[in-house]
Amino acid sequence: MKDKKKIIKEISSWIILLVFTVLFSALLSSQVFAMTTIEESSMQNTLYAKQKVVLNRLAYKKKTPEHGDIIILYKNREIGSFGQEFIKSLKNLFNKPKDEEKDRLVKRVIGIPGDTIDIKDGVVYLNGNPLDEPYAKGITYDYGAILPVTLEDNQLFVLGDNREVSEDSRDFGPIDLSHVEGKVTLRTFPLDKFGKIE
């Protein structure tokens, strides 16, 4: 009888530990930071598909993104409340919807609120000045975007570094700050590329 109680107690403690670990993991990944895998080629040569990075969700709690920041955003959805994001993170631990992955993009911030962005002859202009973009790959076509555009108080203009294949603000226009999930700060894999991301 004692052995049975001991076994039940042991199993119960493992279950409690497992539940706590899952909840804590979901809390961290939904509110603080998350490990994420790059799924697209639109940020080459800065980031490549299958590389793993750390997303800082706290980076923009008290400030807006800055020029050159690499961010993860949702094209078609706003970031929800604490509870909504926690539940979503909990579900994603077990099954991440494919349509969400397609909607989630990694891009570089080119324009912030108040900026005017234009593209002429393959060159990006920020407030009338041509941008020096050593990170950009290929020619920056405007793809028929309505330019120049002046960004409102809650808007960002984003581009992928791999300009000829990237779906970005040239296609879907400026994005709302409420769609920004966080800042990409660190590459963790492959190990020979480990380090801060610029």
3D architecture notes:
The protein has 198 residues and is an alpha+beta fold. The protein has a single domain (2-186), classed as Ribbon (Umud Fragment, subunit A). Helix content is 26%, strand content 28%. It has helices at 2-31, 82-92, 98-103, 169-172, and strands at residues 33-37, 52-56, 70-74, 104-111, 116-120, 123-126, 129-130, 149-150, 155-159, 175-176, 180-189, 195-196. A hairpin with a 2-residue loop joins β5 and β6 (123-126). The radius of gyration is 21 Å and the shape is elongated.
Gyration radius, to the nearest Å? 21 Å
Separation of termini?
Answer: 62 Å
CATH fold assignment: Umud Fragment, subunit A
CATH domain class name: Mainly Beta
CATH architecture: Ribbon
Estimated share of beta-strand residues:
25-35%
Number of helices: 4
* Count of beta strands: 12
The description of the largest β-sheet is: 8 strands, antiparallel
Helix content: 25-40%
CATH superfamily: Umud Fragment, subunit A
Mean pLDDT across the residues is 86
Could you spell the SSE succession in H and E letters?
HEEEHHEEEEEEHEEE
Task: Report a brief summary of the structure.
The chain is of the alpha+beta class and 198 residues long. The chain has helices at residues 2-31, 82-92, 98-103, 169-172, and strands at 33-37, 52-56, 70-74, 104-111, 116-120, 123-126, 129-130, 149-150, 155-159, 175-176, 180-189, 195-196.
How do the strands and helices of this protein lay out in sequence?
Elements: H1 2-31, E1 33-37, E2 52-56, E3 70-74, H2 82-92, H3 98-103, E4 104-111, E5 116-120, E6 123-126, E7 129-130, E8 149-150, E9 155-159, H4 169-172, E10 175-176, E11 180-189, E12 195-196
Antiparallel strand pairs: 1-2, 2-11, 3-4, 3-11, 4-9, 5-6, 5-8, 6-7, 9-10, 11-12
Helix pairs in contact: 1-2
